[in-house]
């Protein structure tokens, strides 16, 4: 049982809410980090606040970094529509370098907090095919973190990027979180959620989520628009 | 001679101004990226604008990301003084994970621009000992970039982090830039520059810079406060 600090990247979606619950169950003192990056689905950030409150985190920090200045994704550029059908290859909802950027910010905060462990709700089973959700990406970031920082150079610790969901199906994630008491009605996964947090039901993220609840045989609490 | 696009991280200091001049001399179409991270020495950003204008960049983007929310450095926390004497070990002017964060943002923009090359003015000779200026850090980031991105997975290119100053002394950097026409009076290196861009003359960065001009036998155009 850990009694250490951990930084948990918290988007407000189903996966990161589960990762937070796992970190808490393992005994970590959790510091949740959300990024207000100009995402189309801003309801996600409201969800992150609800999840952080329900998860008894020590602190929930929201950093503002407007990635609309970079664009290149349906999530940060209003001129690119969120697809209503599965894509061939990596979909346009991919945000360039997003997890690299988010993990970098988590690393900076972890260093200030003297925390060595960073939780990321990445999953490489029921996912959208994003390259920065794969185990080889996570391992490469971990290696980088231990070269990049004063803490790693001057102290004896090593940073770890913990991805407890990596090899789980969406149904397994939902079962795990449900056992740990995660209230999934607080979370928002939809790429095109409206300001009330109501989900579209047709985007890639909605479909993966709905299928997960169905396969887990757990009632789906997601509020849909229609 | 390259005719490709490159993203150049431009702080407004002496090193990044030289890296930009080298990229231009190699024929790159340069896209300069500066980060307004709440740095104490905001005069740096004004310098970055001047350097970008003088360097004929295609575009100069300034992204706002307030790292004061993370703190942990004399450059982002007003409660930590900029030292007036050399430090033992890595000094308090180290900003947690700064180059990791900045390279991540450069990578995101490079991906959108279809640029494969990113210039970073890192130097491991006359420097403050920051871990994220070392060659092994740069190589690790390059490896990460080629796992993290859709461009690297779906296309045949590879991202490169180019650090032409890495093995140069400060005097060599200044001689190189001077030959390429860099106007160093436009740049600000001081960690404690005032709002007019006047340098303190005593911080680590000022001392390295002054010694560089002296050793290069080039007249130092730095405006000092006293």
Q: How would you describe the overall organization of this protein?
A:
Chain A is of the alpha/beta class. The first copy, chain A, has a single domain, classed as Rossmann fold, CATH 3.40.50.620. Chain A is built from seven helices and five strands. In chain A, strands 3-2-1-4-5 form a five-stranded parallel beta sheet, sandwiched between helices. In chain A, helix 1 packs across helix 6 and helix 6 crosses helix 7. The N and C termini of chain A lie far apart (44 Å).
Number of strands of chain A: 5
Summing up helix and strand content along with how strands pair, one would put the structural category of chain A as: alpha/beta
| Largest β sheet strand count, sense and barrel closure of chain A | 5 strands, parallel
Helix share, percent of chain A: 25-40%
For this structure, what is the CATH homologous superfamily of chain A? HUPs
Average pLDDT reading of chain A: 91
Number of helices of chain A: 7
How much of the sequence lies in strands of chain A comes to 5-15%
* Poorly predicted ranges of chain A: none
Oligomer: homodimer
Q: How are the strands of the largest sheet of chain A arranged?
A: 3-2-1-4-5
Mind telling me the CATH class of chain A? Answer: Alpha Beta
Cα distance spanning the termini of chain A: 44 Å
CATH topology category name of chain A: Rossmann fold
Overall spatial form of chain A:
globular
